[in-house]
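Please check this:
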Amino acid sequence: MLRIRRLGIDTCHETVAYLARRCPLYRAQEFVALARIEISTGARRIVATLNIVDDETLMAPDELGLSTVAFRHLGLPEGTLVEIAQAKPPASLDHVRAKIDGAELSADAFQSIAQDLAAHRYSKMEIAAFLIASARFMTAPEVLSLTRAMASVGGRLNWNGDTIVDKHCIGGIPGNRTSMIVVPIVAAHGLKIPKTSSRAITSPAGTADTMEVLARVDVGPDEMREIVAAENGCLIWGGHANLSPADDVLISVERPLAIDTPEQMVASILSKKFAAGSTHLLLDLPIGPSAKLRDRSRFVTLRKLFEYVADQIGISTTVVATDGSQPVGRGIGPWLEARDVMQVLERNPAAPRDLEERALLLAGHVLEFDSALRGGRGIMRARELLESGAALAKMKRLMAAQGPPPASYAAAALTKDVLAATDGVVAGIDCFRLSRLARLAGAPLDKGAGVDLFKKIGDPVEKGEPLYRIHAAFPTDFGFATRFAADGDGYTIAGRK
């Protein structure tokens, strides 16, 4: 038997084990590099991808190294003795092969796949095979079956029959941090809105990354319930809640491959909302030339699929189309976006008006899940709560309830203004390119990194006038970002009429 050792290697969601080539108990030749093995002791067992190690300083020959996620899933202390064996392929792979061949899968097939995904029995290659096969075609009933299967694997929050509201945006628009304004408005009104959010994977900031500038977001389910009971809401990272863990596994491969089909999107979002105990949901679907939805026809198709699946799983859903032609607010990156949010809540004259108005629009729709506010009164109530200071007071209470952030943050010190190359009027902004630029600058890992916009669509601009400012914390990231901006600033400037 081998003694397990935590190596502290971040392999994202993939469970990885490391075996010394000179292991005295198992011949490395018996295991092909990158093969799947089963690690077991007593009733505990996990499946992991195996790597062979030649560096004897990394671990002893009689040890089995585990990546961070593998160590966490095994759930045993360092030094525990384990056995290894060649892992059998998960039985549900037969369903994946059938999908590759063009079959329509049953609900039981998706249930089997979801269970194996959540148990980390799939390699990334096998996950990719499932995603690509599903991207070829999925029927609406298949999307429903996948949604139900993913929601059933993992935890589910129960709020004792209350009306539980939520708001979600499909993403793709930088700076669109409306949730951090919507939640305190809705909570101040009295509706329960337990908002679990994700961290960024390929974007410059997720809601959890931005909220972490202001408060702790690493909150478990029990503490979450206490916060919601006291304040009607929260803004936390959803990683501890174990909601639809199969979806997290899919996302770990889906995002790097840029696979984001409508079917997978619907199953991903609605499985998490169902598991979170949501009864009413507002969906924000931005439309724009560099957004996920490029035109109205794609919006209609996605809206209908969302509505069909949501109706079947019992979530009352309102779908709203919003402007996805450009970033929302000025900041792109956690600290800069948090600044924008607080400026709106604090009624600061410098607050970005587009962020404020979009947040009020969305909050109004959420508030109309309260039957007393039907008939368009929601946005009036939202504006009242914002302008009176009630939303700000609620945000401060949420921050206090969640606790202080892990550190104090500020805008990153290395800066460069990107200047307009010509006179004219801003006619277009490439959301994808600016998101990429902010990530190259270090966001979201460096909370203060990102892009601060000075010009939006319709603004006049003079040659040499700043379009935006790059913020970076490290010279290497600063160099990456500035060179990327030099190759293309992401702005289209039209001549004045």
User: Anything to note?
Assistant: The chain has four domains: 2-86, 93-152, 165-240+258-402, 414-494. The first helix runs from residue 68 to 74. The chain has 17 helices and 18 strands. Residues 411 and 448 are 4 Å apart (CA to CA).
